[in-house]
Design brief:
This protein is of the alpha+beta class. It is built from five helices and nine strands, in the order E-H-H-E-E-E-H-E-H-E-E-H-E-E. Strands 1-2-3-4-5-7-6-8-9 form a nine-stranded mixed beta sheet, with helices on both faces. The longest helix has 16 residues.
Length: 200
């Protein structure tokens, strides 16, 4: 199965996707309120895309960007009935292509992955390790940063866009700024083994 189209969704389509798919696909503590998405959409800082094969939806992803050189892969999922068919890697490639096309200032995409060390049981730890392994296999790299948002701890990964040098990028500061733009709340980040707190 090949992805042959990727469509940017309008507000009504995003609301439908949020209600029918995202609430099913993501735990409540990981899903930002739709009201926040709507506010970011009005500011042109948020985009939601759906991928298709022969007219059938096979996956979706969302992007948060304030126009800088780093964007956030906010959500990424293969459609519920399409899983275990090898679509994930192709969907991730489609995501990278969209960044190159729609976000020309971006040198990298930052990706949040639930931290294996914070898993509540061995099965959950393996699941988180597999998820990180998927992104690493498909071109992302592990950064030195750990991030906590709404009580969930994440490893931060990064995907270089079109071979960009991401070495100088402080991904801790970048995601901090993105979250402050989105939520304006207190967050914690663990960078270079030093715990830092930021507050707007």
């Amino acid at each position: 199965m090949n992805i042959d189209a990727v469509k940017g969704l309008n507000a009504a389509e995003i609301k439908s996707l949020y209600t029918k798919s995202m609430k099913r696909d993501f735990p409540q503590n990981e899903l930002r309120p739709y009201s926040t998405m709507k506010r970011l959409l009005r500011k042109n800082e948020y985009g939601v895309y759906r991928a298709y094969s022969n007219g059938e939806p096979v996956g979706y992803f969302s992007v948060f960007s304030t126009g800088g050189n780093v964007i956030l892969l906010d959500y990424f999922a293969v459609e519920y009935g399409m899983r275990s068919r090898g679509i994930g890697s192709e969907l991730f490639r489609a995501f990278a292509q969209i960044i190159s096309k729609d976000y020309p200032n971006a040198n990298a995409a930052v990706i949040e992955c639930e931290a294996p060390y914070a898993a509540e049981n061995p099965d959950e730890k393996k699941l988180r390790e597999r998820r990180i392994g998927f992104y690493l296999k498909n071109g992302a790299v592990m950064t030195e940063h750990y991030w906590r948002a709404f009580g969930v701890e994440y490893n931060l990964l990064a995907l270089p866009i079109e071979g960009a040098d991401i070495t100088p990028i402080d991904f801790g500061s970048e995601i901090h700024n993105l979250y402050l733009s989105s939520f304006g709340r207190l967050f914690t980040i663990h960078a270079k083994n030093k715990l830092k707190h930021w507050k707007k």
